[in-house]
Amino acid sequence: MVDGGGEPESSDSLRTFGAVLQALREHQGLSREELGDLVRFSKHTVASVELGRRMPDLVLVERAEEVLGNTGALRRAFPKLARQPGLAAWFRRWAGLETSAITLYTYECRLIPGLLQPEVYARTLFTNQLPPLDDEQIEAQWIARAERQRLLRERPNTAFGFILEEHLFRRHTGGAEVTAELIDHVLKVAGLRNVEIQIMPTEQENHAGLDGPMQLLETPETQWFAYCEGQRAGLLMSDPKEVSVLQRRYARMRSQALTLTDSVSLLQRMRGDV
To answer: Pick from 106, 108, 144, 165: CA 20 to 30 A from residue 209's CA?
Structure first.
């Protein structure tokens, strides 16, 4: 099976949360604009949350609790929302599978994968997106990314493997300081026992991943899934034949990339060159 999708959609939990927020606001005799002023979000954001069109971030929830009587209803409901902030609909199912995966492999040739991005690098990407994001959207994107990154440390029995093109570091996205922090962060993550990071050197003329980035995931039931992402959508694959093709390509790339030790050495040399 191959699943694709478009923009994030609403959900029952988002609409229910929005209805509770609206009821609490009206009980306090506040308009959407007045509540927005008190929680320092626009009235349009308040309206989008109340209508179940937008995932609230934690900052809005905490401020709304203080303004609307500290009932605890919003705070308790927030973790149960079906949609994570900053995650598009077409990525959401894959993100859900990640939380219980026992194996997760990633090959990336466009940018550093989200699981490995330090905050300064991630925010550089967010601020350069088109169409542009506002401050609230950027904050929501980072909150979602930081939450995903907890997987690396909170699931020590999950095997994470990354194959990254050398040019991702040579591009110096965000400038020298951002690149230096990026390399330091990746080297730190590479020191985790459950993480393997390999660099595909630029001098490797050909390799099995030239068709583009890919992710592979194994569930506790030993079922494998694959995910390939494009500019505005992603494909989730569960067909064993399709997944097997990508598994074979990833296995070949592991032999074509630098070893773990040589990859760390190259990263250290690039760090010294920044």
So the answer is: 144
The SS3 assignment for 215 reads: strand
In sequence order, the β-bridge partners of residue 35 are none
Say which amino acid occupies 176. Answer: A
Verdict on whether the full-model pTM lies above 0.85: no
Structural tokens at position 107: 């090959």
Those residues whose C-beta lies under 8 Å from the C-beta of residue 196, and which sit 6 or more positions away, are: 159, 160, 161, 162, 190, 260
Given a contact cutoff of 8 angstroms between Cβ atoms, the answer to whether 112 and 222 are in contact is no
What is the secondary structure of 62-87 as a DSSP string?
HHHHHHTT--SHHHHHGGG-SS-TT-
- How many residues in total does the chain contain? 274
pLDDT means per 10 residues, the chain with 274 residues, are: 44 85 95 94 89 81 92 86 60 83 97 97 95 89 90 95 98 97 98 98 96 95 92 86 97 98 98 93
DSSP 8-state class, residue 120: H
Q: Report the candidate in 63, 79, 151 with the shortest Cα–Cα distance to residue 113.
A: 151
Distance from C-alpha of 194 to C-alpha of 205, rounded to nearest angstrom: 29
Q: Are strands 214-218 and 103-108 parallel, antiparallel or unpaired?
A: antiparallel
- What SS3 class is residue 217? strand
